[in-house]
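To whoever is on call:

I kicked off a structure prediction for a single chain this morning and the downstream step that reads the tokens threw a length-mismatch warning. I double-checked the sequence; it's 341 residues and nothing unusual in it as far as I can see. Pasting both halves so you can look.
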Amino acid sequence: MLLKKLCEACGVSGNEESVRDIIIKEIKPYVSEITIDTMGNIIACKKGAGPWAVRLMVCAHMDEVGLIVSEITEKGYLKFKKVGSIDDRVLVGKKVTVGDKKVSGVIALKAVHLQTEESRKSAVKAENLYIDIGASTREQAQELAALGDYAAFDTAFGEFGEGLFKGKALDDRSGCAILTQLLRHTYDCDVYAVFSVQEEVGCRGARIAANRLSPDVALIIEATSCADLAEVDKHLEVTTLGGGAAVSVMDTGSYSDKGLVDQLMRLAKERSIPVQYKRTTMGGNDARAIQTTGTGVKTAVISLPCRYLHSPVSVISGADYIAVHDLARAFLEKNCGRGVE
């Protein structure tokens, strides 16, 4: 299963090579040209079957949030910094893999009975945590890991409940899997598929790719928060798991083109694709970088609802995944002319 392979690969921002290798192998039979730019983005061109002149970019990011080793202590523990936005409270006790050697580690904290009463009352900060890789000295640890090594959460992908899937890095390996599947179809115009790097640390890769391509229209396929949890008021839920593809109007970094938003909602209705609006303006994605590139780009965002975003284990709905794929395909067919099998 492609999504399983992508989610279980390690690809913390700045270290997307393993994910890139999987995607290139998957898309190679279906595209005309593949370019890897200096940032590490994949830019794949699928030549169109017709005379349409629109320059259309579809983007999903390859990177995930994670950790980077910043110090090795005298006793062989690894201190780290966060890469991307991660809530400190989800880190304690989680399994990780460190570096190219995929060394197993556990994020640890001083035992509770050794903590002060005061320290137990507050959430632990990442700066007070460390990764235990089983070493007892700095020298032993240095044989296994080095400063600057990335650490990714070690989570098996799998089915979860009825019609659900759990795994790490569903933001945005789910988008990468969907974009890969979209390239298996034929469209009338040229489609430029961008699998971007470093989204989680500032949408850096997408900005470079958009500058290179100067697209007329860009579609971003992303995962977004659900927050449809117990004790969360309905009006505070970002999206609902199982509610279908989520269409954004605006967020903290971009404002989707109103015509494209209306078009997406019409297409969903015409093709009976489950759809919902993203109901808050919080968060952001590669649209923030693409929209303001050059003289400006019309952008639209289709998101996959995802519980527990930016944590060691996230959850998605298989039905929502299909809805995002189907709506994105409808968008490409509409803006590129009639899709052909």
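Update from on-call: the warning came from a stale cache, not from the record. Cleared it. Sanity check on the structure: The chain has a mean pLDDT of 91.
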